[in-house]
Amino acid sequence: MVPSEKHFVDEKEMPVEEIIYRSAASIAEMIRKKRVSSEEVVRSFLDRIERVNPQLNAVVQLAGDRALAEARDADNGILKGDVKGPLHGVPITIKDSLDAAGIISTGGTKGRSTFVPSQDATVVARLRRAGAIVLGKTNTPELTFSFETDNAVYGRTNNPYDLSLSPGGSSGGSAAIVASGGSPLDIGSDTGGSIRVPSHFCGITCIKPTSGRVPRTGNIIPFGLGPLDSLSTIGPMARYVEDLALCLPIISGIDWKDPAIVPMLLGDPGAVELKRLSVAFFTDNGIRTPAEETNLSVEKAANALSGVVMQVKESRPDAVDRSLDLFYRLWMAYAGPWQQKLLLKAGTIERIAPSEQEKTIPAMALADLSEDLDRFRSDMLFFMKEYDAIVCPVNAYPAMPHDSWAKNYPAYSYTMTFSLTGWPVVVVRAGTSSEGLPIGVQIVARPWNEHEALALAQYIEAALNGWPRPFL
Question: pTM of the predicted model, to two decimals?
Fold first, then answer.
C-alpha cells in the first residue's frame, strides 16, 4: 500500500470532499476511470481554498472560473477517450514567481502588481499540456529573496500547523496550501532552500532537482545569474513522494531557451534496488547545532533505512562546515546587483537603492570566491565517491515565529550546502516536535540521481507515515 492510499479503503465509498487529501497520481487515475469528474475535484479544491485561505493567505490569485471551464473540457475529453497526459483533469497551484498566462503574476513585487503574462513559464506550459488545471498562484516574498513569505503586494502567509509561525520561504504559499489540502501539487523555486525549508516547516515533500535538470524560463529569477545561476532550480511540492516522481519527468528537459539545461535521462525510482545503496547521515553540520527533536528525526530516518540499504553510516563531509560562509560571500557579492536589475525590470522603482550604496568588490576577491566555490564542490564530490546518498536535517529547527529567520540565519545553512553543490535533494517528513510541528529530513543524492533520492524518500515516507493533516 502506497502512503497516498492510507486514508481510504474503498474509493467508491469515499466522500467527494475527501478527494482533496489524495495524491495527484490517484486523483488522475480516478478521473481517467470515471470514478470522479474533474469538475467535482476542482470544486472540492476551490471549496477547501475558500475555507482555509483567509487564515493562511497562501493563495493570492484564483482562476476559479477558468479552472472549472477547463475541468469540464477535461471531462468531455475522458468521454471521448482523449486524455492529454498523466495529470489530465488534476488541479494544481503555481508559485507566484512563475508566469501563468492570463493570471496576474507578481513575483511578490509591486512593480508587477497588475502584470498578466501572455505566456506560461516553461514548467507551467508542460504541466498544462500534461492535463493539469491551474487553480491559481501562491504567495512568495519579493523576487523570492527571503526565508519569510511576505511582500508589499499580498502580505504575509501563515503556517497551517500554527498561524503564529512562518511557513518558510520563499515557496511558503505553496507549502501552506498543499499541506492544508487546498492543492495536491505546486511548483516552487529554490536558490538557498526555498522549496526545502517550507516543505520541512509545513510537513510536505518536495524535490530540488539537479541544477540543469528543469528550465527556469518564465521564473522571476531567470537563468543567466552568473555565479549564482547554478543555485537556482525549479521543482514540485506535494504531500506524497509518488507525486514528485510523477511530476519531475513532465517538467524536465531542454526547452531551447534556458542555456544551462542538460538533456540527461531521468532514472526510474521504481527500478532502484535499495540494497545496493550506501547511505551516510549526519545531524550537526558544525554551524548551528539542531534541536534534539531534529536530531532524533534524522536518526529515525537513518534507522528506517538500516537493513534495507547496503550500508547506513554516520559520516559528514568535512566541507559542510564551510557552507554558510561560502554561501554568504557568494550572495553578498552577486545578489545585490541582481536584485536591483530585477527590480528595475519589474518597475519597482521605489525599492531600487541609490547608486552610491553599491559596493565594488575587488577582482582578486571575486577570483578567490570562485576558487573557494569550486574547491568546496570538489571536496563534497570526493565524499560522495563512497556514498550514494546523505540523510541530514533541512533546518536546525522546526517552524519558527514570523520575522525570526534573519536572527536564526545559521539554522538555514543545512539547505545552503546542497544549493552550492547543485545536487538533487528530496525532503520528506520524518518526525514531529513536542509542539506538534512536522520535521523533515533531506535525502541528498549524487548529481543526476534523483531516482535514488526519490526511492529512499518513498521508503522513509511509508515507514514513518509522511505528511500529517494540519489542524485547519
Answer: 0.96
